[in-house]
Amino acid sequence: MMKGYKELMLSNLVDNIYIVTITDEVMQQIADALRCKLSTVTSGSKWILYSGESTKDGFICSISGSNFTIRQYINGVEQTGTNKPAMVVNQNMNGNNAKNFRLRYANGKNGATFFVFISDTMTSGTQLSFLISTATLQDKSNIGVYGYIGSNYKFWIDGGETYNLYGEETYGYADDYVVMTVIPLPGKNTVINGLYRCLINKNQEDRYVFSIDAKKYLACDDQTGYGKCVIELDDNMLA
After folding, report:
1. d(Cα 176, Cα 178) in Å, to the nearest integer?
2. Domain spans of the chain?
3. What tens digit of pLDDT does each residue of 42-82 get?
4. Are residues 13 and 21 in contact, defined by beta-carbon separation less than 8 angstroms?
5. Is it the case that residue 197 has pLDDT exceeding 60?
6. Distance, CA of 103 to CA of 6 (rounded, Å)
7. What's the sign of the alpha-carbon dihedral 46, 105, 227, 205?
8. pTM listed for this prediction
């Protein structure tokens, strides 16, 4: 079965202890895998992953003590509250909890990418629930679009505007019923590049790959009873 995603390993076994290694060079590898940009705030300890022209919005990654953390970054402010949706991971950088800590990602066509940071010991938060993409404005410029897919869908864009996209009900379960639409950005007269809203009539509790007209798509999360977010897989994901 095609997985539809790839992984970048970020930990190594050293003297029977798993060690997570995050450096400027490793963060650049992460940015390259996600096809986004990287801004180094503090060499060796703090970085911003972003896709537009602004470094004030995206995901902020940092090392503090023995933890690696990635969080939502909106209009230059790191979102640190416990109820913030995009606290992707607060990962201990050594020990059994760091076993096979890795970036899992799926590149879509037209620029959208799903990703998540996981390890073998994580029991939740392992779905491809995080998004980096762009939107093309009427003047042909691109802005960054970022998202988190959970019980509903939360997006933020360059400039700090935020949006919620709520789920839809499904209609029973069958593999051959899919309704797919683009996702507009209110007030911007544009849509999110490469990302689709999809009602999938299938009782499936995890992401999966499906085909429409010989094109391969990947649903990103573990929602049942909601419309999923979907990308058309880039060719480099099909091997």
Report:
1. 7
2. 6-237
3. 999 999 999 999 999 999 999 888 888 888 898 998 887 65
4. no
5. yes
6. 8
7. negative
8. 0.89
